[in-house]
Write a structure and sequence with these properties.
Farnesyl Diphosphate Synthase; two-stranded antiparallel ribbon; 294 residues
């Protein structure tokens, strides 16, 4: 079946942006709403929402549930960036091509904005109507595990503790499985939770998500040394300057690129084994991960 990725992507991005614009900062003090909206709107690749909708489409999922899952993931992702950029963490001044939230609004406002975005994610997932309670519970469980101590937050803790250290490939993989991969994995599985999938499909979507999440981080490491700040929308060369372990520092640039392509092949193979028919969007996103410029 023919699949035109661009109009599909544009539709998902537009619906995500519209929903976030409505939900973020609603009935919120202006001094908090402004940094919240600054952190979330008009920027970013929205890769996690795209994954949610692609996986939901593959299993015939409910559109309202997928939209809310997509926005909740983007809110968690945005909150993590706000906090990661602060001086106590990565101390960065550029994100999505503009000053980071703490630079623009101050550290206290950035901290509160991140806290509020995290809470809002779970409010978005639990509407009074439109999404069945059992689906709400499943989505909340997936997101909380991915964002917490056994997911993104745990990975960031390992990252901070690893500055200046020489990690093995297994240690580096585990750090990134948590820090970056957990939310990407959750994006696929939350999309799948919006519909019905066989046990085989569920397992293979998990394999796809794991491979894609790691490939995404490997390419981030590659782009950190090959792209400039204007292209990336964030400070290039930051990892090397901070003496952080990366796939490029561990295995070299070409080997890191080869690793990303191997992971891409694993993701594609998993989709072929899933038994699902509507996987064109998931395949296109796998291609996007390894061929992106930022």
């Amino acid at each position: 079946m023919d699949f035109d990725f661009k109009p599909w992507r544009d539709q998902v991005l537009a619906s995500t942006e519209q929903a976030l614009s409505v939900w973020v900062g609603h009935n919120t003090p202006a001094s908090l709403a402004e940094p919240m909206r600054y952190a979330v709107l008009d920027g970013g690749k929205r890769f996690r929402p795209l994954l949610v909708h692609a996986a939901s489409q593959a299993v015939g999922g409910q559109l309202e549930a997928a939209l809310r899952a997509a926005c909740a993931l983007e809110l968690i992702h945005a909150y993590s960036l706000v906090h990661d950029d602060m001086p106590c963490m990565d101390n960065d001044v550029l994100r999505r091509g503009k000053p980071t939230v703490h630079v623009q609004f101050g550290q206290a406002s950035a901290l509160l904005a991140g806290d509020a975005l995290q809470a809002l994610a779970f409010e978005v997932l639990t509407p009074e109507q439109g999404v069945e309670p059992v689906v709400q519970a499943r989505l909340c469980a997936l997101l909380s595990r991915a964002a917490g101590s056994t997911g993104m937050a745990g990975g960031q803790a390992i990252d901070l503790a690893s500055v200046g250290l020489q990690l093995t490939e297994d240690q580096l993989r585990e750090m990134h499985r948590l820090k970056t991969g957990a939310l990407l994995h959750a994006s696929v599985m939350m999309g799948a939770a919006c519909g019905q999938a066989s046990a085989q499909a569920h397992t293979q979507l998990g394999v796809y998500a794991d491979a894609l999440g790691l490939a995404f981080q490997v390419m981030d490491d590659v782009l950190d040394v090959t792209a400039d700040s204007a292209t990336l929308g964030k400070t290039a060369g930051k990892d090397a300057a901070n003496d952080k372990p990366t796939y490029v520092s561990l295995m070299g640039l070409q080997a890191a690129r080869d690793q990303a392509m191997s992971l891409h092949a694993r993701a594609v193979e998993a989709l072929a084994r899933s038994g699902l028919n509507q996987t064109q969007a998931l395949l296109a996103l796998a291609d996007l991960v390894v061929h992106r410029a930022h």
